[in-house]
Amino acid sequence: MVKITFQSVSAQKPEKDQDADKITIPQAHGRLVPPMKPRKPFPTGLCCLAISLVIFTLGLVLPSIYIYRYYFMSQQIPEDSLFHCRVIYEDSVYAPLRGRQELEENVSIYLEENYEQISIPVPHFGGSDPADIVHDFQRGLTAYYDIALDKCYITELNTTAVMPPRSLWELLVNVKRGTYLPQTYIVQEEMVVTGRLRNMRQLGPFIHRLCFGKETYRLRRRNQRQRIERRETKKCHRIRHFENTFVVETIICDRF
Fold first, then answer.
1. With 60 as the cut, is the pLDDT of residue 166 above it?
2. pTM for this structure?
3. Angle at CA 195, nearest 5°, toward 191 and 199?
4. What is the rounded distance in angstroms from the CA atom of residue 115 to the CA atom of residue 213?
5. Which of 78, 131, 162, 179 is the most buried (most CB within 10 A)?
6. Where are the beta strands (DSSP E) in the chain?
7. How many angstroms separate the CA atoms of 10 and 115, rounded?
């Protein structure tokens, strides 16, 4: 008989070094410091693009509003503000044509914009040039475009000779039923050229539209003494127009 015996084997694992398994985390001043994340760059290119688009949009919108208001809306004048005038007046200043004369013109009155535009066709008799005239009461300026000379002349608005738009409109409405205006008289104003104008935009949109692309000169009124002494020394031309209860003859002379 064979006897088999088992012996218990007591094997103890060696104890691990506890200090070797510890993980040491560095501390700053007793606080944990989280790892720093990389900062994303600021999208400067996108901001510049957005600002450029805003400026470009404003550059399109604002001029469009300006053009629509002053160049398109101003042309939409109601029919009751358009007048074709023919006035009989007594000419006592121009010797070849003394006596009863007739002046014909077209008047457009813009009440909201506060200006008047007058178109004078070629007169039936000599002594006056055809012209287009703008009286801008907002800026206090008058522009004469002499069609025969193809030149523009700018001067201060003479409020004693030119009725404001509302008053002139009321005057023409009162006589619109008749073909002729009541017989009236003529007065003179004499101007002298003082120099050429280069910057047209300072004159406002209405005068700028009338004189754009034309030689433009500034005028000043001549006093009575200068009229007597120097009237015949320089070449002058005349524009006769009606914007009051009388006819005005504007005499424009070259610079002395």
1. yes
2. 0.67
3. 115
4. 21
5. 131
6. 82-91, 99-110, 115-120, 131-136, 141-146, 151-156, 181-196, 215-221, 236-242, 247-253
7. 121
